[in-house]
Specification:
By secondary structure, this protein is α/β, with parallel strands linked by helices. The protein contains eight helices and 17 strands.
Length: about 250
């Protein structure tokens, strides 16, 4: 049996996920946890399960806090309505990421993915896990931004570029400029590399919004929507930039 724990602060969502998992005869739910405090206590006092299904945003914090205080060798599948936390999730033993509402086929796929990561002797090799995760990297498709006291979801395909200014990273859309909680280095690692390219230390651009490319006296890109500052391609990235354009 695959010992499994559910971390979810919404009781209906927790019950629904448990019912879905009960459809898999090889899985046994051994605990349901509703808070960071409860999670730290449970993982400190009990044998860790092989598989953990965890919401990210809990009533008293983020579930990441549990595993930063009590490291686990178990595999984690994160569940949430927002995929803004993908990068941090994949740094904490995550093997998959399910967006709510969870679909039966997505859950089944995540469980099969978990099984594929287990060697035949069921021992866990952390380096092998990290390599497998890198090969199957999830790309960021939505970003949660804050506007005053409101939150807004922006689809990454609506973003013409990301840029840094005064140590803050912004994203540019047709509508306006929004601040984000990411760094450019983080974004460079989780954006779709077929669509986005880091042209210099300050800008990541979206190929769908390229309007013109100047090549003399240096490479400069004009986007349909961009901040006032011009966007140039660093000399050491020109070759990769041209390969990206045609690849």
């Amino acid at each position: 049996m695959i010992k499994t724990v559910i971390i979810e602060d919404e009781k209906p969502a927790s019950r629904k996920l448990e019912r879905m998992l009960n459809e898999f005869p090889e899985i046994e739910v051994v605990a349901k946890i509703e808070s960071v405090e409860e999670g730290v206590k449970w993982f400190s006092e009990n044998e860790h399960p092989q598989l953990i299904f965890s919401d990210i945003v809990l009533g008293d914090g983020l579930s990441f806090d549990i595993f930063e205080k009590v490291p686990t060798k178990g595999f984690i599948i994160y569940t949430t309505a927002f995929d803004q936390y993908t990068l941090k999730a994949f740094k904490l033993n995550s093997i998959d990421y399910l967006l709510k509402p969870i679909l039966d086929e997505d859950l089944a796929g995540a469980i099969e993915k978990f099984k594929s990561f287990l060697p035949s002797d069921s021992s866990v090799n952390s380096q092998e896990i990290k390599q497998l995760i890198k090969k199957d990297k999830t790309t960021l498709s939505r970003i949660l931004v804050k506007i005053g006291y409101n939150l807004k979801i922006v689809q990454t395909h609506e973003v013409s570029c990301f840029f840094s200014e005064n140590k803050i990273v912004y994203l540019q859309t047709q509508e306006r400029t929004y601040p984000s909680d990411f760094t450019l280095d983080e974004l460079d690692d989780i954006l779709d590399e077929k669509k986005f390219f880091r042209v210099n230390r300050q800008f990541i651009i979206n190929s769908d919004y390229i309007k013109n490319i100047h090549t003399s006296p240096y490479y400069k890109v004009d986007l349909e929507f961009q901040p006032q500052e011009e966007i140039t391609v660093s000399r050491d990235r020109v070759k990769d930039f041209k390969d990206w354009l045609v690849g």
